[in-house]
Amino acid sequence: MKLVKGFLWLLVGAVVVVGGSLFWLPQFTKNKHSELVMALDNVNPVVKPETVYALTTTKPVRQFTGGAGKRNTLID
User: For the whole model, what pTM was predicted?
Assistant: First the structure.
């Protein structure tokens, strides 16, 4: 019986920690622009979806199919 009671307390504690972090995390990640913050906001169901623009360090890659059906890649 003690084992079941301990497991239930552990389960309740985990639910409180996860539930609390769902509401605390958006305040922590507000107006931050790192990739980790964007990933956390994507998996958090409490955060409203919105369009966010971020700077990247990679160059754009354009791909097109030529007249003979060959796929070509242009790197700007």
Answer: 0.44
